[in-house]
Amino acid sequence: MTNYRAGDLERQYSRLDVHEDFFINYGFVTDRVFQLMHPRRSEAPWSVMRARHVKGLLEFIRVRGPVHPREVDDHFSLGTVTNYWGGSSNATTHLLDAMHYRGLLRVVRREAGIRIYGLSEHAPRGLNVRERRERLDALVDVVVNVYAPLPAASLSYAVRRLRYAVPQWTDQITGALERARQRFAHARVGGVDWYWPAGEQPGAVEPDETVRFLAPFDPVVWDRRRFELLWDWAYRFEAYTPVSKRQWGYYALPLLWRDRIIGWANASVAGRKMTVDAGYVAGRAPRDRRFRLALADERARLCRFLGLAD
Known about the structure:
By secondary structure, the chain is an alpha+beta fold. The protein has helices at 8-12, 31-37, 48-64, 69-76, 91-101, 129-147, 152-160, 162-165, 173-183, 219-222, 224-231, 289-306, and strands spanning 18-22, 26-30, 80-82, 88-90, 105-111, 114-119, 150-151, 185-189, 192-196, 211-213, 253-257, 260-270, 273-280.
């Protein structure tokens, strides 16, 4: 995105046609995708006590307006719960997250990184079989448009993650996957079946000389299976790996040049000065002046993105 700066999305979020929500990953989705997923129903019903808390919290927000989790905690004092990792989490935060996931609340903005929640009310509406299929197929299209081309195993993995986006239709995802295999363009290359949107022509555009530092969860990087098939090396996100066992770095950014990911970069900031250390799969940087110039350009773009002096 041209001229995007760190924090722009958070600053402008309330004016944009986007929502924080869970799709096949947690992040931001357009209003169209949001509407395709909701109203979202979970298979597990609330317990009697949890349902009472949910009702009280909805009424509290209806009267109060958008709230910070601290306000909710001060009012309800729900204590702590055991989280996914076996530790303790604030029960208020846990409940707000659950209500957000089920579509009862939405994130209206963030303050210092903390989600501020407001009501998100959906008119109940029953969908017939054809409408459910159309919605699921539309969500599959979003997945493939973001992540294609996809090897068959990755297509199956990504589409099946829609069980988090629409848990109410989990039993219909296998059918959506079968329809996807029929309608998307595909080819068998090197013994692997690949899929992409019909009408697209992979390889039709010549790569330019640009260098890009890619985020660990960039669509180009997210599918590690495809990553290894295309570039023949295994990238790993190592933020949670003990320092002594890291191979690439705490937050290593895959380094794309032309149409190849040839290495990784670790960026660090001290004061207002950024340092970029790059590593290369081949053991050294390309001996090409165009690469050196493109690498310098990308470093300058990252500085501007972070508001730092180049």
